[in-house]
Amino acid sequence: MSDPTPVRRRTIAATLRASFLTGLVVVLPIGLTIYLIWSVVGWLDGWILPVIPQAYHPQALLSHYFGPGYEFPVRGVGVIVFLVFTTVIGWIAKGLIGRTVLGRLDRLVDRMPVVRSLYGGLKQVAETVFNKTESSFDKTCLIEFPRPGVWVIGLISARPKGEIADKLGEDKIAVFIGLTPFTSGFVVFVDKGAVIPMDLTPEEAAKLVASGGLVYPPVREA
Hints:
Elements: H1 12-48, H2 58-66, H3 77-93, H4 96-109, H5 113-130, E1 139-144, E2 151-156, H6 162-168, E3 172-179, E4 184-191, E5 195-198, H7 202-210
Helix pairs in contact: 1-3, 3-4
């Protein structure tokens, strides 16, 4: 006895559409990643190569060793110079001379009304993000915001210091709440007991917020 319910076969157009969407899911992240890296490398080259003498440019060196007609696009020299320069500056800054120069620079900038605010804010952010002696943004949590019953993902920041710690007390923590697509956000100070710690990494939390709740991390095995 045959099955009265006919089996609906996918048309060629539906099969091609499904294959295209599957390929798009695979190709799009790879393509965008390569494009962003290529753009950042080109941006650094555009800033740094003009500072380097023309005779030491990659194209000039290729023309010198392989002939004037040899042309090949070379990128990444700016990134290498930036990494080497930053490493050398960091090594010098650790020494006595570097600390002396930086101290004088800080005192000089502190005399400039507008510049000192910008420089001080950027320096504090950089020290907080890259200073490994104090953990920052290494834990995630859930917090009720902006009203009870509504939960958002937050990144636990450094503990309040200075006047904020004196006014609010030692039992407060700073939580950064990112906004989709995670290009902005704000900081709230709440009680330690008001947050629910999570095992979610900051990168996974950022992806979840940036995607508008579409990209969830894989389920971890217990």
